């Protein structure tokens, strides 16, 4: 069923929603944002290869004990035991997340061959809640983000992780930390990018690479390019992650009852270097847990790295549309939905809207889409999402 409402001109919406960034010196803090075109906070240009400098890997003090508690030897884990996905070795409870740093694991070629964990749905999957869903939106063709990303899409990046199906890729966004202004180490993504849901547990070896492939080089050109092209700000390992209990208990291959709660917050640390993620990238986006009703929002934009055909995962894309509602079940909250042709790999990428006073705020993330790739849906961020964010900020923000 195609939408009968008129589609707003893409050029007008794109002008209203733009993840722009302004270059600044390495010691300046311009993350407060503002501006007259609803642009995101300013971002610094990369100061060479962000992997340079002294190692600053600091694992949680109880990490070794936690691994041993589950019968895992930390040294064996780093040498390959993490590849054991036996049910009794796959940690799934919220309190059981572990992600020891394995230096050198995520080599450039390994990143380039990561697959997308697509969450696609057939038309029959949507029958449960159509009574309160708005008409299916018309497809909006995803547009390439301007390069270099360090000036135009700096807070967005790629999330890499390992699952029983191999090494995988999603998208994520650097978000502000209200308890650590200017020094955030928090990344917003989808729950299905960090945890398998009802049928599994936590994924492993999670890292975040902001502004991946900074100049949108082709695979061949990127292979021959210096490391700072692929990871202009370096790589950041997740040392703690939280997702919703609803996703852990009810998430499924096509989202399931966990889809309206398919969000996650990661706390990260650089594999090498000492500065916070926000200081290094130069920008972070605030999260809005009190966004208006979907029907009152004139424009919403989704950013990410689509990796499923016809895309290859090397280029950041965006879609901007007037959102509608998608209901999967009468017992769960409705989701935001926009027309967009992005595919798997864009999962977890932030959705933004203009906020009062200028700039953008994050209001959702890519969760599910149809096999026809004509639209995307993301969860509404309410009290549950805010509780997870607040816990991560207070408990892990300064660690």
TrEMBL record:
Keyword Signal: yes
Alphabetically ordered keywords of this record: Signal
PANTHER family for the chain: PEPTIDASE S1 DOMAIN-CONTAINING PROTEIN, SERINE PROTEASE
Domain of life: Bacteria
InterPro entries named among the record's database cross-references: Glutamyl_endopeptidase, Peptidase_S1_PA, Peptidase_S1_PA_chymotrypsin
Region described as Disordered: spans on this chain: 25-80, 120-146
Signal peptide limits: 1-23
Native species: Streptomyces finlayi
Biased composition regions of type Basic and acidic residues, renumbered to the chain: 62-80
Name listed for the protein in its UniProt record: Secreted protein
